[in-house]
Amino acid sequence: xxQPRQTPRRIAVPLLGTRIAPRLCHAQDLLIVSTADGxxxxxxxxxxxxxxxxxxxxxWFCRQQIDLVLCCGVNAQAQKTLNARGVEVVSGLTGExxxxxxxxLTGTLEPPTWGDPARCTRRHRHGAGKxxxxxxxxxxxxxxxxxxxxxx
Length: 152
Hints:
Layout: E1 10-16, E2 19-20, E3 29-36, E4 39-47, H1 54-63, E5 68-70, H2 76-84, E6 88-90, H3 97-106
Parallel strand pairs: 1-5, 5-6
Antiparallel strand pairs: 1-2, 1-3, 3-4
């Protein structure tokens, strides 16, 4: 990823332990990092406990004047709402939160590969299993596709 055009003043990272939480709404804590001219200033770790879900985070980020959210997963509507309110969201990130913040600020953060079939390194088919259940059944659990009925 390239160096950000303007270094954000306040960065929020949803945490699960010391790592980025898999979904914004699963965060136990938030790491808030204040920056000036690319240098890290004040750091806070805030326990969010029972957060009230993703929309409570959206509201909190806006009230606390967060400029950037570095996260793993966030739903599309929440991301659109944050962007419309002037909060940049970089999603698809994993790993130790402190390392991700440092890499973002130095411009060395690699773009995420999950969700991009062209760059995915896993050995699976994207979209596999859609519309099928165990045993080859489709829909609501009828016979496997292509199975005929007995004429008895």
